[in-house]
Amino acid sequence: MDKVFIEGLEVDTVIGVYDWEREIRQCLRLDVTMAWDIRPSAESDELDKTLNYAAVAERITAFAQQSSFQLVETFAERLASLLMQEFQLPGLRLKITKPGAVPTAAGVGVEIERGCL
């Protein structure tokens, strides 16, 4: 299976368990790799036959703007489910980094895989 990816997409959302985190928006950095057969689009050179990564990025951004989760794990699971359903993905890998959550680390987060990648 081929893969289409988006790396380093930054979105702002309400995320965290502490009271002060519930009152602000924080940056999350996302890397997503999606299983997709690129042969039909490569043969036709037509956008409507490919996985439009710009549309995926827009959907991720909209999801982040509307969400308010305590855990990065919940954010990841719900986003993975949404992307697989809305874009008919056979599989994906999603890495979510929360920069600054641990002062001595560049970032912390989760990485999940769902379906066949």
UniProtKB/TrEMBL annotation:
Domain Dihydroneopterin aldolase/epimerase as annotated: residue spans: 4-114
Known EC number: 4.1.2.25
Claim: rRNA processing is one of the keywords in the record: no
GO biological process, one term: tetrahydrofolate biosynthetic process
Top-level taxon: Bacteria
Chain segments annotated as coiled-coil in the UniProt record: none
Pathways involved: Cofactor biosynthesis; tetrahydrofolate biosynthesis; 2-amino-4-hydroxy-6-hydroxymethyl-7,8-dihydropteridine diphosphate from 7,8-dihydroneopterin triphosphate: step 3/4
Stored CDD domains: DHNA_DHNTPE
Pfam families: FolB
Enzyme class: lyase
Substrates-to-products reaction catalysed: 7,8-dihydroneopterin = 6-hydroxymethyl-7,8-dihydropterin + glycolaldehyde; 7,8-dihydroneopterin = 7,8-dihydromonapterin
The keyword NAD is assigned to this record: no
GO MF term (any one): dihydroneopterin aldolase activity
GO cellular component: cytoplasm
UniProtKB keywords: Folate biosynthesis, Isomerase, Lyase
Function per UniProt: Catalyzes the conversion of 7,8-dihydroneopterin to 6-hydroxymethyl-7,8-dihydropterin.
Family to which this protein belongs: Belongs to the DHNA family.
Protein name, as recorded: 7,8-dihydroneopterin aldolase
Organism annotation: Pseudomonas lutea
